[in-house]
Amino acid sequence: MVMAIGHGVRSREIIKKVAPHLDCELEAQSLEAMEAADQDGVMVMPGARELVGSIPEGCWCVVTSGTRRLATARLHLAGIPIPKVMVTADDVSRGKPHPEPYLKGAELLGVSPEDCLVIEDAPAGIEAAHAGGMKVIGLTSTYGAVALTEADAVIQQLSQIKVSVEGPRMLRIEML
Hints:
- The protein has helices at about 1-5, 10-20, 25-35, 50-55, 70-80, 100-110, 125-130, and strands at about 60-65, 85, 115-120, 135-140, 155, 160-165, 170-175.
- By secondary structure, it is α/β, with parallel strands linked by helices.
- The protein has one domain (about 1-175): Rossmann fold.
- The strands form three sheets. The chain has a three-stranded parallel beta sheet, with helices on one face.
- The chain starts with a helix and ends with a strand.
């Protein structure tokens, strides 16, 4: 049950739902520390480094339901640079599926939501991005294509996305 509701949602919200008798902040901090230290079985998403490397600095951000500590640890492990803009569970009062995380990311990048393209692997994230007025590419990694049908497009691999620079802060996105 936890996995069915958990991916793409902040830990504290999951803990409140499945164990309301616990101190959700204390439990979330403990869980975060374990996750940030654990590298067993953590794999770099194929094509992630190449995709991020093809996008000019300042034109992309990370919006995650994980904490800053966890996101930073995973980016370091993957060899992906820490972006100038990163919105984590620590930075918002309402997590996905609420649009606040994505709207904050757009604001910090200095772009309008309708000019944003989100790559998401969870239904809660797709819902959040659409609620914020953004287009979404669903990535079948954690969930299969059937669970991601609300996305504007669904792909199996990040290598299916090609980014080219057409001008300052003007990118062209193609799906292969």
